[in-house]
Write a structure and sequence with these properties.
This protein has about 220 residues and is α+β, with helices and mostly antiparallel strands. The chain has a single domain, classed as Clam (outer membrane lipoprotein receptor (LolB), chain A). It is about 15% helix and about 45% strand. The chain contains four helices and twelve strands, in the order αβαβββββαββββββα. It has helices at about 1-20, 40-45, 100-105, 215-220; strands at about 25-35, 50-55, 60-65, 70-80, 85-90, 95-100, 115-125, 130-135, 140-150, 170-175, 180-190, 210. The chain has a twelve-stranded mixed sheet. A hairpin with a 2-residue loop joins strand 2 (about 50-55) and strand 3 (about 60-65). The N and C termini lie far apart (about 60 Å). Residues about 1-20 have low confidence and may be disordered.
């Protein structure tokens, strides 16, 4: 009888957890950067005011990274179809790449290998209890993620959402090569506007020049 009661309690808690998950919304991160290296002062200055927005629903995700005054990088992914659209706007003009998540992965440098340490340590961010994950690469670079399991977002093809982290990151703390960067969620909206479907369209907007991944490599990006 005791085993039956425990089983029922486990199933019930699992169902409640799944029902409570946020599967649609708009999340905004504030980005702070600093460095003790004088050679990086200019880069840090140019990145001031940077933000990252994640919009998501069902199997689609849209990330919008505003890199200070330099450029804006938007990535739209559809996990179900495998489509990926990247939009870049800034000093080099407006450019677009239409590809697939598989092709993008194949053309990226080899994924770094991390030692992943999950901790029971917690902190609360935007009313969500987050657990700690520490990722250390082979060169000793360390990234600390504070993640929640309350939010379900498709990470496929989204470079800001590390698949080695078991939940959605509410805060990143990166320390690599003398550069320190933290990204913290400042706003969380649990619903999208009815017209939000336009944000996930895989159509290249007017005014953007289509490029290939090879073109991007030639530009040194």
């Amino acid at each position: 009888m005791k085993k039956i009661i425990l089983s029922i309690a486990f199933v019930t808690s699992t169902v409640i957890s799944l029902v409570a998950q946020i599967k649609e919304g708009h999340i905004t991160y504030k980005i702070d950067m600093s460095s003790d290296n004088p050679e990086m002062e200019m880069a840090v200055g140019m990145m001031q005011g940077s933000t990252l927005d994640i919009l998501f629903k069902e199997n689609v995700t849209r990330s919008e990274m505003k890199m200070g005054a330099m450029m804006t990088l938007t990535t739209i992914t559809d996990e179900k179809s495998g489509e990926l659209l990247m939009l870049m706007g800034g000093m080099m003009g407006n450019n677009a790449i239409k590809t697939t998540t598989d092709e993008m992965t194949e053309n990226q440098p080899e994924k770094p290998k991390y030692e992943v340490v999950l901790s029971d340590e917690t902190k609360t961010i935007q009313n969500h209890v987050c657990k700690k994950a520490t990722l250390t690469d082979e060169e000793g670079g360390e990234t600390i993620f504070w993640y929640t399991e309350d939010i379900a977002v498709s990470k496929k093809g989204q470079s800001y959402l590390n698949e080695d982290v078991p939940g959605f990151p509410m805060q990143f703390e990166i320390n690599n090569g003398g550069m320190k960067m933290s990204m913290t969620v400042t706003t969380l909206e649990e619903k999208l506007d009815k017209k939000s479907s336009d944000l996930f369209k895989m159509t290249i907007p007017e005014g953007y020049k289509e490029m290939t991944l090879d073109d991007l490599k030639k530009m040194g990006m």
